[in-house]
Amino acid sequence: MSQHQYRERHPSHPANAQPVGGTEDAVADPTARTVPWDRLGPMDTRAADFLLGVKLGTRVVVRSRIDGGLTDALGVLRSRTQTQCVVETKRALVTITLADVVAAKKVPPAPAPRPPAASV
Known about the structure:
This protein is an alpha+beta fold. It has 2 domains: about 35 residues, no CATH class; about 70 residues, SH3 type barrels, CATH 2.30.30. It is built from 2 helices and 5 strands; from the N terminus they run ααβββββ. The chain has a 5-stranded antiparallel sheet, covered by helices on one side. A hairpin with a 4-residue loop joins β3 and β4. The N terminus is likely disordered.
């Protein structure tokens, strides 16, 4: 199947994206948001239930709403309450409100660091 045929069959393909809130003559930008912020949908209660039930110390990825879109936090679940959870990422501790969670799942351990390249 050629790329053109793939795009025709999959309207959600990035090449078919249309800017939101643009003018009539706006050029399609594959990186433009195609779903208005207020139509992203409600919280996924299964994701929140997963975060409330999974063992602390589990490596997880959590997708949540932020101003203007969505973001992911990949790291170790460090703490939680009935309204929020804390994920320790490589860069910082990230506090996520469970009402903003769209998806969450357990992920495998991070790969081992690569050995340094031999100098020539």
